Each structure stands twice: as structure tokens, then as C-alpha cells.
Description:
- This protein is α+β, with helices and mostly antiparallel strands.
- 32% of the residues lie in helices and 19% in strands.
- A hairpin with an 8-residue loop joins strand 16 and strand 17.
Amino acid sequence: xxxxxxxxxxxxxxxKKLTAAGGASLSxxxxxxxxxxxxxxxxxxxxxxxxxxxxxxxxxGTIQSQPPAVPAVPNSSAVFDAQPGPWGPLKCAYVYLExxxxxxxxxxxxxxxxxxxxxxxxxxxxxxFFSKAGLSDSLVATILSPKHLVKEGAFVHLLPPLAELxxxxxxxxxxxxxxxxxxxxxxxHADPVLIIGTSIDEWxxxxxxxxxxISKIKQLSYPRGEAMAFSDIPALLNYAQSDSEARAIFxxxxxxxxxxxxxxxxxxxxxxxxxxxxxFGTGLRRKDLEPLVRSVIELDGVDDLGIVxxxxxxxxxxxxxxxxxxxxxxGVMPDCHWTSLNFFNYEPHEYLLDARxxxxxxxxxxxxxxxxxxxxxxxxxLDNTTGDAFHSCVHLADNIVxxxxxxxxxxxxxxxxxxxxxxxxLYKGNGRVQGFRRKxxxxxxxxxxDTP
Length: 452
């Protein structure tokens, strides 16, 4: 279980500063601390302290289910051009990252026995729930028989037989696994492998998995919003032919699709406009960017520049990397909010791991903004009901963002399309995105616009 963050509340006078369109209060409070085991909670939460017990328990104690919508598989090219804009011509390519083998070796492989964990108080309602989800009466009886049921304190663990687990339809799997995802004890259901924006075959095409294993992933996957999800890593390990292949399977399940982007530059480029955009539109980083951009423009035989070279120092250092174990020395791993609020810094400000201080920085140094977003605007994903911020990322250009999707050690820092990040965090349909801009940048932009 995640450890509880400090409890506190925001003064009412400060809450009024964060009022978005529609009148919803943007309460940015306690950071939820996730553990170091894989996979940890994918949503780092900033919430009101009075909601903390609900967030940590993940449940109100009742079973809810909705029929899933099967997502369409988009036909997206691996290489594409971003929309034109003041950021300059951007050439984008999808690439896949997997956690390095040295990191995978730090984690014990899970048991190959599939397990579903429910609160013991829900045991009487499970037969009805499973039947409504689409399981046959005989299978429900099998799963709930003493041979496949283990009681442990406040929880009951169900051990569904492998053959019956594989025989479930995607729709039934989606209903049951959506309920399992409400309880952190079901780590692979709460934080599944997500295949976003492409097919499962394309996602694993360049991996080292045997075709039979990829077919098994397809069989065991289920729809989650506009993505396909896969939670049955333990079941898949039953098909490993060796210890090394078992670890290769685990490694492939850390696979993440992200973007590599290059800024196209030549002697016809609008250098002034490009430099202005990537220096926040105010010239704050002009001395860092102008020499490099102009030198590439003037250089024959070189016509592009990796976007990593025009990001601030810390983001440049972190991009496409995984957290090191040394980052745990502060007692908690970096998450999306730490990443977003440190975007401007040369060295990370570790105090931003503290909920109270991170909230204070947002309240004191940022102001809400509407689209179109600019370079370095922070985009908070907010719950429509509570106003809690459960994710954040940094806008780069053309709705392309810099993000870390989860606090756990197997979540790298990547660049993604905003629409793909929304598929991870807004699939329930109960959230929205609100942009925030540093007040000093917003003030300088306004002054520049007001100058005749």
C-alpha cells in the first residue's frame, strides 16, 4: 500500500486563485506516494486532504460495472510532420522504449498463478457480479470454490484456472478487470500495460517476443477507453520456455511508445520566430538557444536539430531515461508533478516532492491559461467532481508534451502527443485538462502584446 502523504488544506483565499472555465475549483494538494515495486500507481494525485482516505483505498466498497467500448485501431504513421506553427517545422517519429535489463533484474518475477483480490466484504455479491459480467454459472462456482479461494484478513484472493481465464471474452475481461483495478492489491489490473494509438502487433513488432507470445497478449487484452489494456502478465509467464524468456516477457511489458522529434532548419527558416517561441516568447532563454539555432541554419549539410537540444537543462538530462535507484534516497520517487514543476530548473528542487510546498509553488507562481498552449505551460489533469489533479505534463508544441506517466521506477521521461496522454488518464470521462503558465512569463507576454 502507498504510504500516506501529509494532511493539510488550502486557505480559501488561495483556492479562489485557481478557478478554471466552468467554475470548478482546482484544488492542488497532497501528493500520493507510490512504492518502488512494479508496477506502481500510474496516477500521482494532488488532492484535498479530506479525500485522502478515499484515494488511498481506491473504493467506496461497492461493485460498479459498465459495458466497455471497443476502441478502434487508428492508422497512424510512424513518421509524421507536426502542424506548422511558430515552433518551426517538426519531424516526429514514434519509437519504443523498454526498461534496461539491469533494471529488470532488480525486480522479482511475479507468480505465474493468476490472482484476483477483492475486499472480503464483497464476497457475497461476487456471484451476481461475475454473472452480470458474462461468466457462466459453472465457472462462477469453480472460481468461488474452496480450491480457488483464499481468505486473508480483510481480503479474499481468487485463483481463476488458466484455461478459463484465457477463455473469457474481451468484454467480460474489461468489466471484471475494471473492478479489480479499484483495489491496489491487484497491481497489474490497477496499472495495466496500455497499447495506445496502434495495434498490438505493431506495438510488439520490434520486440524480442515470439509470435506465439504476442498472440497470447492479443487474446488476453481488453478495451480500456480508447486504448487496449493487458493485465495478465502472470498468465503469460506460464508460456515462458526459460528464465531468460520470462524476464524478456517482463521487460517487454515495460514497453512505452514515445516521440523523437527533430526541428527542421535551413537558410529559409524564420530564425527569429523559432527562437522567440522556444525561449517562452519572452527571450528568457534566448542566450541558450540563439547561437545553436543560427549555427545549424548556417551550416551546410545539416538541416535539423534534435528537440532535446532546445529543452531546458533538467528536461534535456531526463528525457528518454529511467529513474535511478539513487532517486529513492529522499524516500519517494519523482512523479509527474515533480517533473512538471522542475521543468524550468537547472538542478531539481527536491522540496517539490513535498505536497505542501509543491502546492504552494503552483498557487504562488502560476496562473491558469486557456488553449492554445505555449511552450512550457504545465497541463494539469483534473477530476471534474473534486478538482483533484491526478496528472500533469509540460506542453512543448502542437499539443506535444513532456511527461512522466507514473511515480514508479519503470516509468521513463518521454515525449508524447497530448491526445495519447489523455487516453491514459481521461478514459473514465470524468476529467479535463487545465493549463497553467508561470506568472512572470505570462506578465512579460502581456506586456509585449500591449507594447505598440
